[in-house]
């Protein structure tokens, strides 16, 4: 008796960068599963949105950040250091905006390399481009936090800015710290949008490598801790220490 030929396996729907902008918020598992089929240029769209929003927020926050820099001047500070801070506060934002636009993709390029290495170490599977594209999309869930920060800070007004702590708005334990700058800096890494981002990292590792949840959580946790440590260091250099 002749056997019926098996039906061909359905061809997976190619990933759409435009659809990915929505899926990363409502259906990230489907997005990350289709990353290997994403066009080679697919990462450009989320990167462009990330750069535009980041630069725009920094531009509108410039008057507030300048006020925060002036708030770093103390009576026991040397005249040279105080003058340097005053000059820094009065500079136009142009150079900082250019640096922000350049730093955003470079930082994610390095981050993707770290995540790929960690995935290869713990799962024996690591492909750079899916992780690079996936991080470009995953980072988008942090942009609302930046926008909300500007909205809250602008509603408070420039006169409410006394130091760098006043520029960091967060839905997390840092909101209960009022004086200890270093503690505030560390706790500001733990907030609602960062938890969302961490969940996306776990899903990304699972879908790209096919690893079990435990291994995926381990990879995502180590990667997140590295990123948080870098962020704490950068904020410390800007005055939160």
Concise summary:
The chain is mainly alpha-helical and 241 residues long. It has helices at residues 17-26, 28-33, 44-70, 79-90, 94-123, 128-138, 143-156, 181-187, 192-209, 213-237. The longest helix has 30 residues, at 94-123.
3D structure, described in words:
With 241 residues, the protein is mainly α. The chain has one domain (28-237). It has ten helices and no strands. The chain has helices at residues 17-26, 28-33, 44-70, 79-90, 94-123, 128-138, 143-156, 181-187, 192-209, 213-237.
Main sheet attributes: strand count, strand direction, barrel closure: none
Order of helices and strands: HHHHHHHHHH
What is the radius of gyration computed over CA atoms, rounded to a whole number of angstroms?
A: 21 Å
How much helix, percentage-wise, in residues?
Answer: 55-70%
Strand content: under 5%
Count the strands? 0
Mean of pLDDT? 87
Please give the count of helices. 10
Topology:
Blueprint: H1 17-26, H2 28-33, H3 44-70, H4 79-90, H5 94-123, H6 128-138, H7 143-156, H8 181-187, H9 192-209, H10 213-237
Task: List the defining traits of the structure above.
241 residues, single chain, 0% strand, 10 helices, mainly alpha
